[in-house]
Here is the input.
Amino acid sequence: MMLHCATVFLSAFLLFSVQPMMARLILPRFGGSASVWAACMLFFQALLLLGYAYADWMSRRLSARAQGWTHGTLLVGSLALLPLRLHTSLGDGAAPALHIAVILAVSVGAPYLLLSATSPLIQMWHGRAEGASPYRLYALSNLASLLALLSYPAGIEPFVTGRWQLLGWSVGFAVFVGLCGMAALRASRYSQPVRSRESQSAAPGAGQQLLWVIFAAIPSALLLAATNHLCQNVAAIPFLWVVPLAAYLLSLILCFDYDHPRRHRLFMWMTAPALIAMGYLSLHSELGSNPRLLLPLITGGLFIACMAFHGELVARKPHPSSASLFYLMVSLGGVIGAALIVWAAPLFLRGVYEFPILLAAASMCLLLLNYGKRWHVDAVWAATSVAVVVFAWTQIRAFSAGAVVAERNFYGALRVVDSTASNGSPIRTMVHGTVSHGTQFRDAPLARQATTYYAPGTGVQVALDNLRRGPQSVAIVGLGAGSLAVYAQPGDHFVFYELNPQVIDLAHSQFTYLKQSAPEIVEGDGRLTLAR
Here is the structure.
């Protein structure tokens, strides 16, 4: 029992400590974009799905002895890949999400895949050896994941360099291989039990499996949508994504460790006002731009919704003999939810408004789930669905209102909006999320004047004037609308470094700053390009 608990705990701790570690180490290469974490999480969830598929295949195809020897041999072989190294040069030129996947696959793919398969295998071996339900070990693994997630930004990242982080994780993985090897040897001594009639009759059908996928996909998608909303529209705070992920993991711990129908009913009722509150806050920017207000409310609402959906998962968990299939379908749902945010949303949505759309989807799913129980229950969920759908529709309309151009890619949503200045002059502004990245007067006499925080008399204008001793060579990190190009004089060499290709396109097509002085523009992360 202790060996199984220690192995599951360490494997989960390593799984969730390497995720923020690798995301943090590759983050500078992609300009610190909040989407980097979402792309990393999609990759790790996809590997988790493969690991669970491997565990499910072994549980159905191999004897207990063959399972132990096969998994143990692969783990020992993976030691040859240690210590971990970061291969950031691989995948250059590919789309950012694909580039991130290539880096992670080569740097940590094989050890992570074997780690992800260990938890369902150990739970199966534990049930065979101890005759106990494996689901509490799943709660233990999520507790270890939560501890790893919280310890990295608070106790590891600020004090340990990237090289020593990779080395320390590699040592922990070697210890894990030893523990899992002992568990595998011990498992090979037990014969494969014959399924009882009860377990055979309880084999889940396709409809049950589909529900597992849905109830896992919605919380996964809500998690990443809430994280994108917080990081792109509210505040650029380091490791802010840890907070909603911690709420997500806590809901898994509570639901799988202690399943209580009365608690589940309570959270189901709390989900209706939580969805409405989150939808209202995502719509009203005057409230939603305050991190002190938004962070606890969005995180709390996400936790309540996750408790409702994960509670439905636990209520439908199968006989332990089908546990590996259950985990496989849950993992598949997690990958689908993450892929909707990382891949589908940038392709099909012009703005970062998948969060209110998912709130509406969650409310309608719960409406269908509870339909027909009692008339007042139907009325509550119908009203909730209508309210959240209205919030989502209003936010989508508000995003497009007044926009000359609205586009989106891996780095976020960009708009070009025409409006009127306080003096009555027409102006054009580039907006990324909720932040202005440059404004230009549209009337020809004023079009050559820098505005906002680059206007005459601001720090940048004073600095350029005081440093002028003839022609200047100036490097500028971040293009925006190109406002600073107005300070280039004949003979000067201005170079803009810009990570987002959409910003470059809009600065050329929608503003005239760059046409006035034709500066050089270099696409790529400014810090890395300047370092080279």
